[in-house]
Amino acid sequence: MNAGKTKYMVMFRDQNAGRSHNIKTDNSSFEMVEEFKYLGTTLTYKNSVQEEIKSKLKSGNACCHSVQNILSSSLLSKNFKIKVYRTIILPVVLYGCETCSLTLREERRLWMSENRVLRRIFGPKRYEVTGEWRKLHNEELNKLYSPNTVRVTKSRIMIWEGHGACMGKRSVYRVLVGKPEGKRMLERPRRSW
């Protein structure tokens, strides 16, 4: 038995079912947890994407903070700053996004996080008449930088679904086109794609 694996997680629909059960074998104990990180992805017992998006945005903010001097420098060109954003910050935020099902709330979070970084890159805008400085509006940011993270995430999800559809009779294809059996619980279902 591998000594490094000491935790397990069970997925429940009912939040109160099966709490705090530890499994003990001859000389090992396994602790039940509500979430853990596996291959860079945070898995929760509720199978919720909210915690995963939060952790991706937190990692992206840490990357942004580490290169904030580059992004806010007036000596560097906007094109260079965009390249830094695309090569350092964006891959951290989009890692594993193919398996996420985005809700409107999560789309809004991704969009707001990206706009925060873009405002740092492009800086404030000055009114020609009054000479006052102001932040760029969202529409102005969309014109300056078009491939937003929500659009990229959705396109990656579609590409991943296309790969699954091409797999024929394999298990991924069966999950993609299959129909679940049994009855649905009476509670309102979570929204997903």
Brief overview, please?
The protein is mainly alpha-helical and 193 residues long.
Helical percentage: 40-55%
| Rg (CA only) | 22 Å
Distance between the termini: 39 Å
Overall average residue pLDDT? 80
- The topology string of helices and strands comes to EEEEEHHHHEEHHH
Major beta-sheet overview = 3 strands, mixed
User: Per DSSP, what share of the residues sits in E-state strands of 2 or more residues?
Assistant: 5-15%
Extract low-pLDDT stretches: none
Q: How does the overall form come out from the CA principal axes?
A: elongated
Major beta sheet, strand line-up: 1-3-2
Please characterize this protein's 3D structure:
46% of the residues lie in helices and 10% in strands. It is mainly alpha-helical and 193 residues long. It has a domain at 50-177. The strands form 3 sheets. A 3-stranded mixed β-sheet has the order 1-3-2, with no helix packed on it. It starts with 6 loop residues before the first strand and ends in a 16-residue tail after the last helix.
